[in-house]
C-alpha cells in the first residue's frame, strides 16, 4: 500500500502536495462492514473532503490558517468490501508505516471499529498511551450477536490492551448496563452526557502523556448531526464539540493522533453532518498537529 503518492480524487482543502514535506497525514477508512443499524459510513471520508471546499482555511478560534500546517491528504485505504479482519489488518499496517515515517495520523471513518487497529498501532509506538473517546455509545461490548468484530466493541478492545484506567470516555448516553458496570469495576473513566466540563477536569492529569483522540460524530445531538449510522437523542451541540477540540489543543497534552468516524452522508440530504465534520477536521489539524 502506497500512502505517499498524490491522491487522484478530491483532497481536503489546503492539503500539501508532497508527502515527505508534511507533518501530518489525513487518510480515510471507508468501512462499514459490521454496523448493526444503518450502513453508509464508508462514504463519509469522500464527502467530508468534497464539502471542505466550502470552508475558510482560517480558524478564528485558533488564529491559524491551514497553510501554516503541512498535511498530506493520502486518500482512502483501499479496504476489501465485506472482510472486517483483513480490513483491520490493512489499517494497522498502514498506521505502522505512517508512524515509522514520523507522521501525525488523522483518520476519517468509516464505522468506529476502524479506530481499533489504529489505537493498537499507536500503542506499539507509545506504551504509555492514553485514549480520549467522545461518543454517544460506550462501545464496550465484547461482542454483538456473537461477533467480536463489531462497531460496538473498539473501546473494550483498546481498554483491555492498554488498561481501562488509561481510557477516558465523554458524552456517553447509551450502552448496556453491563458495559457501565464493567467500566466502573475496572477503573475506566466515563463521563455521561457531557463532554467539555469533565474533559477540562481530566486534561491536567494527562499532561505530557501521549494521547490519541477518537471522536464518533454521534456524540453530537441528531439535531446537529443526523447523518450517522446510530443516532441517539440527547447529545451535545457542535459548539461544545468544537470547544472540546480547542480545549485539547490548548492543553499540555501530547496529542499523537486522532480520528473522526461514523459520518454517513446518505441520511442527511442537507449535508449539515458532512459540513460539520469537515470543520471539525480543520480544527483538529490546526489545533493538534503541532502538539505531536
Automatic annotation (TrEMBL):
Record EC number: 3.5.3.11
Domain of life: Bacteria
One MF term in the entry's GO annotations: metal ion binding
Annotated positions binding Mn(2+): 112, 135, 137, 139, 216, 218
SUPFAM superfamilies recorded: Arginase/deacetylase (SSF52768)
Similarity comment text for this entry: Belongs to the arginase family. Agmatinase subfamily.
Keyword list, A-Z: Hydrolase, Manganese, Metal-binding, Polyamine biosynthesis, Putrescine biosynthesis, Spermidine biosynthesis
Keyword Metal-binding: yes
Signal sequence range: none
Physiological role: Catalyzes the formation of putrescine from agmatine.
The keyword Phosphoprotein appears for this protein: no
Cofactor(s) essential for the protein: Mn(2+)
Co-factor binding details: Binds 2 manganese ions per subunit.
GO biological process: putrescine biosynthetic process from arginine, via agmatine; spermidine biosynthetic process
Metabolic or biological pathway: Amine and polyamine biosynthesis; putrescine biosynthesis via agmatine pathway; putrescine from agmatine: step 1/1
Protein name (Swiss-Prot/TrEMBL): Agmatinase
Reaction(s) this enzyme catalyzes, per UniProt: agmatine + H2O = urea + putrescine
Enzyme class: hydrolase
